[in-house]
Amino acid sequence: MLLPRYVPHRILGDVVRFTLAYNPGAAFSMSLGAYSRQVFAGFAVIALIVLWRLYRLTGAAGRPGERVRILALGLAWGGAAGNLIDRFRSPSGVVDFIDIGFHDVRFWTFNVADSAVTVGALVLAWSLSREERDERVAQASANRNEALAVPMDPVSERRDGHDA
Fold first, then answer.
1. Whole-structure pTM over 0.90, yes or no?
2. Looking at residues 128-157, what average pLDDT do you find?
């Protein structure tokens, strides 16, 4: 049990601690005032819809790049959904508890859903950038092959440069 709030429980010395905290705002405790909970819940719903549409646009999972993208979308979607459920479940906000740092230098307290969103977003960005790079390379190769495959017309292309 992690009670009481804001009291650290050592897991790995002073580096990893579990500390119960509630976050009514967004990542890194961003706040928009009294309506933070509702505004960030709305953003989460929009993000879930966008992630779902990206999933639906993703091709067959047989290609390695597609599997990575599906994994990334699943992590981001699952994390966003988990935090959204937490937001509706408690008026106090999302439950955060992972507290990493050293002595007084601490990172923001976060949860597993936050980690899933972050890892999913990073992997998705990497996957999309890799796909874009692969498409540019394929297009350049196709252009090069097309240029090499153009046959010369022997009548219009005389060696001496004069018309026939």
1. no
2. 74
Torsion angle defined by CA atoms of residues 111, 117, 123 and 129, in that order, rounded to the nearest 10 degrees: -140
Q: Is residue 44 part of a domain?
A: yes
Q: Take residue 133 and report the two structure tokens written for it.
A: 């790079």
- Is there a domain that residue 90 lies in? yes
Count H helices, E strands: the chain? 3, 4
Number of domains the chain is built from = 1
Query: Which residues are known catalytic residues?
Result: 96, 114
Q: How far apart are alpha carbons 76 and 60 in whole angstroms?
A: 19
124 in a structural domain: yes
Q: Say which range, 37-51, 59-73, 80-94, has the weakest mean pLDDT.
A: 59-73
Contact present, 42 and 87 (Cβ < 8 Å):
no
Radius of gyration over alpha carbons of the chain, in Å?
26
Does the residue 34 lie in any domain?
yes
